[in-house]
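Fig. S4 source data, part A: sequence.
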Amino acid sequence: MPGDVINVSYNFSYYDAGSSIDTEVIAIANTNKAISIHQAAELANRYIYITNNCYMEEIDLHKGASSTYYSDADIYLKNADLYDWDVIEHEYGHYVADTFDLKMIGVGGSHTLYEDLSVTYGKSHGIGMAWSEGFATFFAINLQRVMNASSMNIPNVGDVYYNDTDDYICKVNIETVTDEITPSNIISKCESNEITVASILFDCADIISPFGDDMVYINNALLWSVLTTNECQTLSECVNSLYNDATVTWDNKAHLGEVLKSLGLSASNLTITYMNPLPPSLSWTNPSGIHTIQVCIYTINGTQLYQSAFLSNGTTSLNLSTNDWSSIVSSGQYIFYVIIKIWNYGIPTSTDPVTGPYYSTFYLGYPI
């Protein structure tokens, strides 16, 4: 076993959140490195308790390892990561995912925060690995939010950034999906990118954005329940589990579609051409890739009024029939949701799994 070992169990006393820890003070003694590691992991354990009403089993954290990783209920940390709570709690997130069956078996490997892992590893491995890494990053940032960790005054703890301050220097904003230290590091916005996964999960769990660009709020407890009940192991499984869950409100399902659209996972740029008294025509832009497409129209309250046939790959427009439009307007509604669903395919004739549907939400107003 490399390095010293710190054991984390449920009965260790928690650090006084009313005090503050300064990185330079911690660095004075090697003992304080152990305290930093332990308290980061212990906070994660307490988060699991308030979220799932149980503590995690004991786990050993090994400091002074040659690299940072999780393996078989042990966490190994390089010396450079001993004060990076985001990194420590990310690895703890792998332990949580392993415990609650929230990860595919055998989807590890070398990776960066920025890449499309389906390009690197193939779609099946890539979407599983992106979920595994993205969930772990979300877990770290979200637990700090729920546990009010910013009140502890620890550098880089309790914000919306995934911070690695030493060996792999980055400051990735999971709200905006950008690296604020190196903006030229462009993050691939897709289902097989870990920051995209983390951002979608965080948008679901955090409070509604004051800027109006993130109106979905599924809350921590409900999101956790949906993920663990359905044992989600890809972003596609997560999105469909949320969409099909009766306890997730229709408003939140619709707003989740806006998030998916903003991250390029489904259709964008919907244009509605009104030809009154003729039915309107719809046109949109598809994300890259090979897709099956379907257009649905709902009332604001979630009653389905229209569902198209499945549209072939490359379709970017739809003309509603007179009968379909008459049926829609006869509902007495004047504002509707247009939801465009996208199923993603891999390379034609390959065995890549079909994922989706991911969906985009738009508003359609009936001109009076």
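Fig. S4 source data, part B ends here. The first strand starts at residue 4 and ends at 8.
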